[in-house]
Amino acid sequence: MPEFSHVASYNAPVENVWAWYDSPGAFRRIMPEWEGIRPIEAGALVSDATTRFRVQLGPLRPMWVARHYDVVAGEVFNDVMEKGPFGAWDHEHRFVSTGPETSEIHDTIKWKLPFHPLTFWTAPFTVKGRMNQMFAYRTQRVQEDLKRIAMYSEQPKQRVLVSGSTGLIGMQLCAFLQAAGHQITRLIRPETTLPPDARNDACVKWNDQTGEVLEGSLEGFDTVIHLAGAGIGDKRWNAKRKALLKSSRIVPTEHLVRLFGTLDEPPKTFMSGSAVGFYGDRKEESLTEDSPSGLGFLSEMAQAWEAAAAPAQKLGIRTVWLRTGIITTPMGGALKPMLLPTLMGAGGPLGGGRQYISWISLHDHIYATYHLMMTPSCEGPYNLTAPDPVPQKRYAKTLAKVLLRPWFAPAPGFVLKIMFGELAQALLLEGQRVQPKRLLESGFTFQHEGLESCLRQCLGKQKLPK
Fold first, then answer.
1. Does the reported pTM lie above 0.85?
2. Distance (Å, rounded) from C-alpha 425 to C-alpha 423?
3. What is the model's pLDDT at position 129?
4. Which CATH number is 159-458 given?
């Protein structure tokens, strides 16, 4: 059978790398963002444990079932595909110590395509490039996670309660915190359906509109991270939808803070969601956390959202507002709906393209949240945006460059308003040029300061050494 080999080097002891891989969140963390993988079950690193997930092959989503075997803790584990899209797949992960603070993983995969005698010739453009990108992504993700975890390794692990844990940010944040060794509990509503790979996670159930805790307790958490809220761009806006957007953010925040005041052991830190929409449409004005709020529905909602969290400060709880920018990942957010038009050559300026996009990579958002969680001196509002906001036309041009497509097909503003109504004006035609001033001053460093490097990594288009 054909064989694929890869060596990944890490600036961490081999036992730390093994511990990362053996965490409940590891599988979700190493999933390439562009592959569309849906985890079903993440098997522990013990022999005969099973990992199951669905992969995306065009319109198909076949199930992949892998069984671990010949596991030697701290040294090696193997997985063999028992069901899946390949004719065969047998993967050895060997962990090698190269020094007191360095290590390597040697990956060796024996594989073949279905109907291999007839299809092997397609491997250079159907398999090998994809595998090279996958392992490059995996190496960078593990290395960066280990780096961020090591920064705070001297601090005690925390009990963390997370709302909005099934959302785009929440799922990856919980996985990272688990990989970092923290104890995660999900704050959910009774009707919330957890992803299959999170079904055994600890939960507190509550009615977010009344504040009634239905199952579990809010006592004794070190940090509460509150990210819940209906999707801003999921549906066309009308009066009912706008009311839901506000009530799903403001009302639960008010109830959480009220409940904090009744606890014998309230949280030490409260991190509450917000958004750069706080600043309103500000054209080319450079904005920092010191800038005043703006006008419009999104700004008014963000102001009320932050005000709902403010009383936590009077309770002696360190309170942080996460003013989130545009999350850049193909798994969701603003980038996902842009991919198909761009791939079809229809990407381009929206309404002229002069409005600024204050973007941030998904993983920089997670690392920034972790940095603020683990840095006791940080409190108040923080802009979670990359230090290089760009006009929308530059965003579109960079995306097209990465995908090797033309970028100049414009979408006039009036067409967008016909298609999406009020939402188009607030989310597509207006913008903010936001700087993460306080985040940088606090000592945070970005993995992705520039847009192109972010897009290349999350879309599997990195320029790899030959």
1. yes
2. 6
3. 86
4. 3.40.50.720
